[in-house]
Amino acid sequence: MKNLSVVIPVYNEEAAIEETAAFFKDFARTYPETEIIFVDDGSTDKTKELLTRYIEGTNIHILSHNRQKGYGAALKTGIKYASGKFIAITDADGSYPYQIIPQMYEKMLSEKADMIVGKRENKEIRQEFFRKLGRFILRKFAEYLAEAEIADINSGLRIIKKEAILQFWRLIPDGFSFTTTITLSFLANEYKIVYIPVDYKKRKGKSKIKVFKDPFNFVQLVVKTVMFFNPLKVFLPLSIFFLILSFIVLLVSYFMGQIMDITTILLFITGLNFLALGLLADLIDKRLHK
Predict the structure, then answer these.
(1) Nearest to 23 by CA among 98, 82, 78
(2) Are 139 and 206 found together in one domain?
(3) Taking Cα atoms as reference points, which of 118, 140, 286, 164 lies closest to residue 218?
(4) In what order do the strands lie in the sheet with 4-10?
(5) Residue 258 vs residues 156, 209, 242, 247, 248: alpha-carbon distances, Å
(6) Choosing a second label site near 159 at 20 to 30 A (CA), which of 18, 81, 115, 253?
(7) To 5 degrees, how large is the angle CA 230–CA 217–CA 46?
(8) Tally of structural domains, the chain
(9) Which has more confidence, 242 or 125?
(10) Cα–Cα dist 195/120, whole Å
(11) Among 12-21, 101-110, 184-193, which range has the highest average pLDDT?
(12) Helices (H), 113-212
């Protein structure tokens, strides 16, 4: 697979690294023209030591951070180093079917896509009801802001055109939000994304995701990314909400016999302020992306 580089970020994955390294060792023999890059993000366990031992004698590259910088930072280090025109990314925890990468690459080329994403499917992995509901709400929120259907917003298995990634380089964070940011950025700029179903398994080792903190970070990230490309999508609903609320307060207080004039005026002005901010942000956005 010429012009393809595979970037695999790793952090404290000693439970899975042997199996992952063994697969890509064979992968490198089968596809010698494909560049394979592991990026160790400052692991504090034996991950780097084991990885170095397992891939000894191969042309697989290992890049290292002297401290943990984040999932996105590890990917960016690998992408900068990569020589391929197409970048495949995947996790090292054994949760994704690495063997599907060639099929994804062929599909991406045949459909002339800018990115192909492995849509995770596995009915055997049961999720708690509230977590599943939360993820559904977050996905629908992202789809509303991006104005597009998103089959899997943060799948860690995907192939992307390197030149397309570089267009949004300054937006990509160092944390776990790499995949979400690149997906929203592509959708907002009408890049072609295709999806392919993949069998997703339970990861080996401990998850790095923070269950309570990450959903709030996700909402913040989605709003920030969409505001960069389509600020009115955020400001206009807020403006309408406060304008309608001001009229509701006015009518209710009128029929109650005492008009809440100050509250009504404050709500109305807030709505106008959001509208003005949205129009100004939209004007600036159009000038920046001209």
Answers:
(1) 98
(2) yes
(3) 140
(4) 61-64, 35-40, 4-10, 86-89, 158-161, 115-121, 193-199
(5) 57, 51, 20, 14, 14
(6) 18
(7) 130
(8) 2
(9) 242
(10) 10
(11) 101-110
(12) 129-146, 162-167, 178-188
Residue 220 has pLDDT above 90, yes or no: no
CATH number at residue 193: 3.90.550.10
* Residue 251 domain boundaries: 232-288
Are residues 10 and 22 located together in one domain of the fold?
Answer: yes
The 3-state DSSP class for residue 13 equals: coil
Going by pLDDT thresholds of 50, 70 and 90, the confidence category of residue 260 is confident
Q: Are residues 237 and 206 in the same domain?
A: no
Name residue, tokens 């999932």.
Answer: 71
Does residue 198 contact residue 118 with C-beta atoms inside 8 Å?
A: yes
Are residue 241 and residue 146 in the same domain, yes or no? Answer: no
Is residue 185 within 8 A of residue 229, CB to CB? The reply is: yes
CA distances from 93 to 21, 41, 53, 202, 259 (A): 11, 14, 18, 9, 62
- Which of 229, 259, 274 terminates a domain? The answer is 229
Q: Do 276 and 137 fall into the same domain?
A: no
Of 203, 229, 255, which residue sits at a domain end?
229
Q: What are the pLDDT digits (tens) for 189-213?
A: 889 999 999 998 877 656 555 544 5
**How many CB atoms within 10 Å of residue 159?**
28
Which of 84-98, 108-122, 153-167, 274-288 has the weakest average pLDDT? Answer: 274-288
In angstroms, the CA 202 to CA 125 distance is 7
Q: 38: helix, coil or strand?
A: strand
pTM for this one?
Answer: 0.78
Looking at residue 39, its amino acid is V
